[in-house]
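so my prof wants the structure for this chain in the tokens format not the other one, which i didnt know existed until like an hour ago. anyway here's the sequence
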Amino acid sequence: MSERCGWCGADPIYVAYHDTEWGVPERDPRALWEKLILDGFQAGLSWITILRKRDSFRAAFADFDPATIATWTETDVTRLLADPGIVRHRGKIESTIGNARAYLSVQQRIGFDRFLWDFVDGTPIKNRWTHLSQVPAETDISRKMSRALKTEGFKFCGPTITYAFMQACGLVNDHLTTCPCHDKVAVLG
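here's what i got, hopefully its the right format
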């Protein structure tokens, strides 16, 4: 009998995210950037907290338009710190503004999608884990990605965050082999 990956539990929001988004290869640069930012906001919190606030994040952060966010100032930071719909963490908010500027630089030079997908040679890594205990929190590739992002000026992108990002955006397929999504995702890429 197939069972979903145990981390998603039974919460309908989590189940929908697991079944339709997590692990599906994402190649849209702006969508990749949004997910990296949300993964940064998740640091120290549960992912379900971020999922429940995702619509509020999109409203507060101009639908994650990097060109808009890159122009923001301390006035915008103050506004966001007062928004109860998002995670109100000054460092994460300020890093999002800086990350927007870094994104625009990378996007203009080589493309943010290419920058990220080059870490896996453009093809998702297809793991075959049978138990959650086998799934790593970080890998050599996520450490390399983290260092490269930091070199470009990104913050809140440590190797654990970048590995979670890689899993979520389908750069790696970490659905357990017992999960019905494993094979569905494995044929994408």
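also thought this was worth mentioning. The chain has ten helices and two strands.
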